[in-house]
């Protein structure tokens, strides 16, 4: 029996979910917090020596590029991270905001390792970094910069860019200097932004206007700078 073009595409891709009444996703509630923006700080513990296990190749996609995964603060270079991480979930339990989850099975060798999903629960940039303190295998380290990614705003989706009054992302950003107002629109400072994802979480636009782009590379343990004392 021959299939029509419509039947073929329906079988390949299934049905699309029905849109909401407003034509977009339901905006999340803004978190109620009185916390002032704080500068990123790091622990004072001296770094412990990483293991001598040879790191596996990081997960890759496309033309051999590393798989973009948003790791918790202080994560070392991806291959070293995968070698060190024991999937003990200590960092997951240590996070007071439930921001750290486990990578799904579809990420293959990264499955079961800690990741961030800011749209569901962002990193709140705790000054004492309890997730790092809980990591005994040193996949997360105090002597690695707290740089998870960088936020990027889509002008087509951003309410402020489209002439609607909205300041949620700038008001709720927990990192001093990471976001600012410029001509009535939010602007990200890539040098200060840590990729915590609070801006994405609080964005009330029908279609979320914020993307969090994971860092392209992270420091390897042997080349990390000395921790602050």
Features:
229 residues, alpha+beta, 6 helices, 16% helix, disordered C terminus
Strand content: 5-15%
Inertia-based shape = elongated
Cα Rg: 20 Å
Helix content: 10-25%
Label the structural class.
alpha+beta
Average pLDDT level: 78
The arrangement of helices and strands along the chain is HEEHHEEHEHEEHE
CA-CA gap between termini: 74 Å
Low-confidence stretches: 5-27, 30-66, 223-229
Query: How many runs of DSSP E, i.e. beta strands?
Result: 8
Strand order of the largest sheet: 1-2
- Number of separate helices: 6
The main pleated sheet reads as: 2 strands, antiparallel
Can you give a write-up of this model?
The strands form four sheets. A two-stranded antiparallel sheet has the order 1-2. Strands 3-4 form a two-stranded antiparallel ribbon. The radius of gyration is 20 Å and the shape is elongated. The protein has 229 residues and is of the alpha+beta class. Helices cover 16% and strands 12% of the residues. It is built from six helices and eight strands; from the N terminus they run αββααββαβαββαβ. A hairpin with a 3-residue loop joins strand 1 (60-61) and strand 2.
At a glance:
With 229 residues, the chain is α+β, with helices and mostly antiparallel strands.
Q: Topology, pairings included?
A:
Layout: H1 5-13, E1 60-61, E2 65-66, H2 78-84, H3 90-94, E3 100-102, E4 114-116, H4 130-134, E5 149-153, H5 168-172, E6 179-182, E7 185-188, H6 198-202, E8 210-214
